[in-house]
Amino acid sequence: MASVFFRIIGFVIIQRNSMHFYFLRHLLFNLSLMPVLERNSTFVQNGVIPANSDILKSPIEYLKGVGPQRADLLKKELSIFTFNDLLNHFPHRHIDKTKVSDIGEINSSTDFIQVAGTLHNIAVIGMKSGRRLVATLQDKTGSLELAWFQGLSWIQKTLQPGQQYLVFGRAGFFQGHPQIVHPEMELLSAGKIDGKSFLEPIYPTTEKLRSKALGGRQIGKLTEVLMKLIAQRDVPENLPDEILSRLKLISRYKAFSQIHFPANMQEYEEAVKRLKFEELFMAQLRLARLRSQRHRFSHGVKFEKVGELFNVFYTKYLPFELTGAQKKVIKEIRRDTATGKQMNRLLQGDVGSGKTIVALITMLIAADNGYQSCLMAPTEVLAQQHHKNIIALLKDMPVEVGLLTGSTKTAQRKLIQKKLDDGSLHILIGTHAVIEKDVQFKNLGIGIVDEQHKFGVAQRAMLWEKNETSPHILVMTATPIPRTLAMTAYGDLDYSVIDEMPPGRQPITTVHRSERDRPKVMEFIKNEIGKGRQVYIIFPLIEESDKMEYENLMKGYENVKAWFPEPKYWISMVHGRQKADQKASNMHRFVTGDTHIMVSTTVIEVGVDVPNASVMIIESAEKFGLSQLHQLRGRVGRGADKSYCILLTGPNTGNDAKERMRIMTSTNNGFIIAEKDLEMRGPGEIEGTKQSGALNFKLASIVQDRPLLEVARKFAEDILNEDPELSSAENLRIKSYLQAIQGKTAWSRIS
Ligand code: ADP
Ligand code: MG
């Protein structure tokens, strides 16, 4: 009869990423970008939800149980400065102690359990390391051994034999008997054997805090005190009633109380949903407002006309008909730059879709209007290539084009600066050397950033400062960005897509081969070279400084040489340790068809264009991520010949890597690959977004919460369409909330 008395519910873990980690990342990000953030407000504030009422603004030392010493640690370790910060320090899991189980139910699969019974047989037994305090806990269904290996004498003093205890811990078996080591003990008042009325929160914490009695559970004591101090009015609602009722969201106050102390999992989930929506919605709203304010109020240089240079180039020198997508994008840019507002546009186009010509035409329009422009590439090789291609395209046109990279000699630098000063240089192409402080333009009209994923938000912002009136910015990326990511990471930018490839391209055939197929693969290469084609062989050298990987590359090179001996075959090699001129000359030999094979690390990854190269071999392909593989594959398939990509994997290819190979062999579509990449790796790992503060959500994840993000976006857009200034009565809550969080970032409080 007693067996139905109590029932096991077990132990519920609500797993979340470590908040502590998020916090640190958030903080570091903000610190490193402080000046940028002050200058441009594209950063989305969604780290800490700021105080709305006086009590929540109280310094943390004033909370009962904190005091000055622990307060110092809370500030240093967890950035908890105020009551409000503590309110926003969410538990990463909860322990369910709402149920009390029977001792008789414990079996080998039992994990954490809560039981109640009478304490007997308290004794210290064993020798040396086996020395321990033991006791027996007895209920109507059986008995359980409790054991302590540390703090024996203190614990022994506190235990009261013959009394009823509520006991919680991880159950195991010792010599065939159930046992809990270092259990949590709670003395029960007579007759009352009852579980907790809420799930117990466990918080992210640090070793230092633990040593000051602020472990994951002890922080819960503080939040418990805090929750008793605050009421509905301290946490005012910031969403309109209509949204709350349409999406069935609980109130803000309720959400905070339930995320810390839910009665059950359902309550916890309600709280999380509400707070996630708020995060996503407010972020979308802010991005959309930034965008629309820029459209309405920003001041930009005006490209009034399409002039001589554009016309001559378009009618006489353009070597091919533009694709519909290229024309569409040029129109969008043309429209933006003619308004007198500053353009901030992201241009996405898969590798080989023809972004360079769009950049060139844009720069000609700038020159037609008397403005200079610059084109930034992520690597020296790529900058040189752009420079060479653009000069070739312009033929004898009266356009002055300069190249500035890290290896440009001082004399040349001075000459370029002189021409920039007097305005005779129209187009400057280079690496990020072009945005260094000492490079000054006479009148920069537009900055174009190629292959955005190598540039951070910070560099983008540095371009703004290059002219009195902020120049237009065009960011071009070949990394297809999943929609949700684009919405958050680049939500403040306008957005163009080249979704059409130049005609005459054949799809690339991609296959996955393992080491034992190597001889066949090498035969295949010989065949292709015999037909006059060229071949890339890529080795993974992720860190240029990594000695072992460097040695692997050299070994690989020797290997390739053994298969393809001179003088029948000639090989170029390019890697990051070479001097720029060496790199350039090796590259040049391949571009001109002097060499058959290019052995390279991923320095070749972006932008390089050799139409006659039709085979891409990727060695140790298992070591590359999806988007990188896709980028590399994009180096071939640029000419009219049938192209191949062969992914060679080694013996230690895990399941994830196999899945990546499967995806690569099944599609050429960069957007599908990007979505898969996001799913497999999560947003934090996607290049170019690491530094984007827009992704530092406390709770929401743009991968897992995609549907919610779409909903948030829709609501934000609808609201702004109807009420751009948020001046209606319904939107007052939103407006005052946004005003309250304006400029409040984690760093503004530490300084
Ligand atoms: P990406 O978008 O990867 O930067 P590129 O600008 O390097 O692509 O263009 C890839 C290749 O396609 C180049 O050789 C370029 O000359 C060619 N190309 C670009 N646009 C067209 C077009 N409309 N018709 C034919 N070829 C084109
Ligand atoms: Mg390119």
List the helices and strands and how they pair.
Blueprint (H helix, E strand, L loop, with lengths): L18 H14 L1 H6 L14 H4 L9 H12 L4 H5 L5 E3 L16 E14 L6 E8 L2 E7 L3 H7 L5 E11 L2 E5 L2 E4 L12 E3 L4 H5 L6 H12 L11 H6 L5 H9 L4 H33 L10 H10 L6 H14 L6 E6 L5 H14 L3 E5 L3 H15 L6 E4 L5 H13 L4 E4 L13 E7 L6 H8 L7 E6 L5 H7 L4 E5 L10 E6 L3 H13 L3 E5 L8 H17 L7 E4 L5 H12 L5 E4 L12 E6 L7 H8 L10 E6 L5 H12 L3 H12 L24 H17 L9 H10 L4 H5 L1
Helix pairs in contact: 10-11, 11-25, 12-14, 13-14
Bound molecules: adenosine-5'-diphosphate (ADP) and magnesium ion (MG).
Quick overview:
The protein is α/β, with parallel strands linked by helices and 751 residues long.
Task: Describe the protein's architecture and organization.
By secondary structure, the chain is an alpha/beta fold. Helix 11 crosses helix 25 and helix 12 runs antiparallel to helix 14. The structure holds adenosine-5'-diphosphate and magnesium ion (MG). Adenosine-5'-diphosphate binds next to helix 14.
Q: How large, in whole angstroms, is the Cα Rg?
A: 32 Å
What binds here, in terms of ligands, is: adenosine-5'-diphosphate, magnesium ion
Strand pairing plus helix content: what structural class?
alpha/beta
- Global mean pLDDT: 83
Output the number of helix runs. 27
- Beta content: 15-25%
Query: Based on DSSP secondary structure assignment, what is the total number of beta strands?
Result: 21
Report the helical percentage. 25-40%
Span from first to last CA?
A: 64 Å
Strand arrangement within the widest β-sheet reads: 11-12-10-13-14-9-15
Shape: globular
The biggest beta sheet, please?
7 strands, parallel
Low-confidence stretches: 1-52, 686-693, 745-751
